[in-house]
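Case study 2.
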Amino acid sequence: MNKAKVIFLCTGNSARSQMAEGLLRAMAGEQFEIFSAGTQPRGRILPEVQEVMLDAGINISGQWSKSVMEYLGKTVFAHVITVCAEAEENCPAVFLSMGTHDHWPFDDPAKFHEETRLDSTRRVRDQIEDRLRLWLDEQGITPKEYR
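Prediction:
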């Protein structure tokens, strides 16, 4: 069975798209091939992102920050989901015209004040999870419980 390919796009590929990738893999990884990338990758995942994902029982240490250009001309995605306005505006048009395209804007954990970054990142993780649950319901898929 060919799994539908899903990519989550943001600017730095250091927070939101990484959380979405890890969450969808935990919730419905047997249904999809899941990727994330950035239009201007930062080359690392924020430590707070890794921490809040571990708090939820998801280890994303095997994920890494990568450029959307790694997939250009190589992979066709059934679902392209941008999770920030900048990626929506700056993503190569070829991605946005593939399969279905959704735009789910979330706050950027990289821009949170250091003293509130962990709690704010946890809030964004939960918002992404809620949106993924709605999306999976729209796809007729019941998410696995992973916590």
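The CA atoms of residues 28 and 141 lie 8 Å apart.
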